[in-house]
Amino acid sequence: MKEKQPARTAQVLTFAATGGEGEENIRNLLRQKHGISRSLLVELKHVKGIRLNGKSTYLDHPLVAGDTVELYLPEEESENIVPEPIPFAIVYEDEDVLVVNKPPAMCVHPTMLHGQGTLGNGVVYYWQQQGISRKFRPVNRLDKDTSGLIIIAKSQFSHQQLAISQQQNQLVRHYEALVHGRPAHNEGTIEAPIARKNDSLMERMVSENGQWARTHYRVLAYYEAFTHVSLTLDTGRTHQIRVHMSHIGHPLLGDDLYGGSKVMIKRQALHAKKLSFPHPRHKEMMSFETLLPDDMNSLF
């Protein structure tokens, strides 16, 4: 007879043992073959959330082909994020990830200055309406006035798996921007370290003492008043695209922090348009794309 499931279970992960290499015991199967973090396993061990063929077990228990290992992920609190009925556009959702198209003028996560009205407030409310308690775990971040695609992990497991993908450069982000002037070349790479400006909490700058950063750009179209460019990142420094494009003399429209003008648009004309990543559970590549928002699209 199967043991009673742990209380307040949010999600169950199932892994089958095939008898192959790296499956000598439960620890090896989960750590080496499926990349489950040690911290998550320690946490699950304390709440008896690791099961072998339906029964509580220990990590060093040997495995044979046909065994089934289950991880019972407990519910989590949303870290004091106040639920608010804020609408947001869901591009994709399954039991592991939520992909959202964030509008401009919305912070991703509550801060000291913006404690409410954020994407986090809206997502926590959305889950609450389904009777679900989860931590808000955005995988990639966007500035308040940058629009576009964001991945939100729905568990500690999926967040950890996506973080590994990000470290291995498997999370690919494609941005589009409208910049001042006409770049001398149709495409190029900007490789310049970025550091926080000494007298500012927010502003960044290119500095030899900064963190290494690399941005690739490609011109999509030239217009009389601006240039439409596509950009991809090899690193994810704060304000990276904004700093790098300003560094080469082509700041973003609307980005007055880095030399742009707000005459044509009131925020930096930057949109996270495409996103690709391996799914945290089955590892198949997922790709998503959104249209440019109205304020950018209206300038063409």
Summarize the structure.
With 300 residues, this protein is α+β, with helices and mostly antiparallel strands.
What do these coordinates show?
The protein is an alpha+beta fold. Among the domains are: 9-74, Structural Genomics Hypothetical 15.5 Kd Protein In mrcA-pckA Intergenic Region, Chain A; 174-272, Pseudouridine synthase (2-Layer Sandwich), CATH 3.30.2350. Helix content is 17%, strand content 30%. The protein has helices at residues 26-33, 38-46, 119-128, 156-167, 240-247, 294-297; strands spanning 9-16, 50-52, 55-56, 68-74, 89-93, 97-102, 137-138, 147-153, 172-179, 187-191, 194-196, 204-206, 214-222, 227-233, 270-278, 285-289. The strands form three sheets. Strands 5, 6, 7, 8, 9, 10, 13, 14, 15 and 16 form a ten-stranded mixed sheet that branches. A four-stranded antiparallel sheet has the order 1-4-2-3. It has a two-stranded antiparallel ribbon with strand order 11-12. The N and C termini lie far apart (66 Å). Residues 1-7 have low confidence and may be disordered.
